[in-house]
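For this section, I looked closely at the sequence of one protein beside the tokens encoding its backbone, which the following lines show:
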Amino acid sequence: MGRFFLIVAGIALILAFLLFFPIIVQSAFHYDMNDKKAGFSIRIFKIFPIVGGYVQTYPGGLAIHVSEKKAILIPYQNIDSERKKFSFIKTFRLIAFSLTTETGAEYLIPVSIAQIILRTVFMMKVGKSKNVDNNVWLTDGDVFRLSLHGVVYFNLFILIKNFIIFIKEKLAILWRKKDKKYTH
């Protein structure tokens, strides 16, 4: 009886650890208007790379280059349908956010206003001013560069919970469609 209880308690402890252990994801994004490219990187625990590359436009949409020989093409008309799929954004909890904008004098006022709005939005999300950092660097010439660094966390419990909610909503929509078909 004691050995069985020890095994069950060990399994329960490992399962609780896996469900509630925070997984920290760090992302970096850099956009340069003059090069017309946007580079990005996503890592887990700052060590394990998930994906990285750059985004570039092509005549029919966006090309996400994830390696030298591989690119994911997303036509402009498919962007809205891609957005409506299961969203993992709700599962992430924001820890820190840093935005640095390097700009010339002609973009200074709109960039400053956008920085104020973004800082307000992320202050409402995070709640701590030390975790939200934004800077505007004034440079000479027609320059616009944007660098963003974000740190978020999630755990498997939050992910599973949001996935179950997503499935429940999809089943409710299917149920309503079938119900309307049989009542008419």
Observations:
- The longest strand covers residues 48-58.
